[in-house]
């Protein structure tokens, strides 16, 4: 007998393969069946809405979105939560990247700015992650007039503690060796699940979160059941309640079957 849950899915490396840049057919079929069985389907991603362009066939199944690592959550046109980064911390990061010549993505409430002096954004986001819509980026000075929800600076992990010490009102969620996602202290995917549960009226114990990267840790811990993909980083696997196969080896399908969701 199947059971119903609120299901939360990371995108890159969880729903979408890093190899094909597509959602495996087995995942599409599994989510379609889970939805038909009464479960709810939510996205929980570090991507801002502008660049959530790779969900294709499953978009009609989605009940709500946790975006920018929990800084912006919404259901349809209804805002669930919005937690901007304090301006002083935004300027600390922007100035640091400009001084060092590092690439940076600045995510505003409406628009995105891209500083890419070294070509890192183009190389990783466009070429490796097949991210679309970055050509719609806006000038930095215009985006800085908006609430800033997320900063994505490009630098090695060993520099992270030094910068974050100067951004005391922020938290870092690294899921790639070359860059990290920085949000306000009160924003992460785990807190996004809590906000969505309050808004939608379900119990957190009836949630399952699926992820593969460091920025998924908070939701893997927060959810009633935390599932790490077979391709997940080791640190995430250690926090998970269940480890499934990789995104390319029917990981979502196998997990939903194992947990009797389908």
From TrEMBL:
PROSITE patterns: COF_1, COF_2. It comes from the Bacteria. One of its GO terms (molecular function) is magnesium ion binding. Pfam families: Hydrolase_3 (PF08282). InterPro entries: Cof, HAD-like_sf, HAD-SF_hydro_IIB, HAD_sf. GO terms for cellular component: cytosol. NCBIfam families: Cof-subfamily (TIGR00099), HAD-SF-IIB (TIGR01484). This is Uncharacterized protein. It comes from Prevotella communis.
């Amino acid at each position: 007998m199947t059971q119903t849950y609120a299901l939360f899915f990371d995108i890159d490396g969880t729903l979408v393969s890093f190899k094909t840049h597509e959602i495996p057919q087995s995942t599409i079929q599994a989510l379609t069946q889970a939805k038909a069985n009464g479960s709810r389907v939510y996205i929980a991603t570090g991507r801002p809405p502008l660049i959530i362009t790779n969900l294709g066939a499953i978009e009609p199944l989605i009940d709500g979105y946790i975006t920018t690592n929990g800084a912006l959550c919404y259901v349809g046109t209804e805002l669930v939560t919005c937690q901007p980064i304090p301006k002083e911390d935004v300027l600390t990061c922007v100035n640091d990247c400009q001084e060092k010549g590092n690439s940076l993505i600045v995510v505003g409430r409406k628009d995105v700015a891209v500083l890419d002096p070294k070509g890192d954004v183009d190389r990783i986001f466009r070429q490796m992650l097949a991210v679309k819509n970055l050509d719609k980026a806006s000038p930095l000075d215009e985006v800085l007039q908006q609430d800033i929800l997320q900063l994505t600076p490009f630098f090695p992990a060993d520099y992270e503690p030094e910068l974050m010490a100067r951004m005391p009102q922020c938290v870092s969620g690294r899921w790639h060796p070359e860059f990290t996602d920085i949000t306000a202290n009160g924003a992460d995917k785990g807190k996004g699940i809590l906000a969505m549960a309050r808004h939608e009226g379900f119990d957190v114990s009836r949630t399952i979160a699926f992820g593969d990267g460091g920025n998924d840790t908070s939701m893997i811990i927060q959810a009633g059941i935390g599932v790490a993909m077979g391709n997940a980083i080791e640190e995430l696997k250690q926090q998970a309640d269940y480890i499934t196969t990789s995104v390319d080896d029917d990981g979502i399908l196998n997990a939903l079957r194992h947990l009797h969701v389908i």
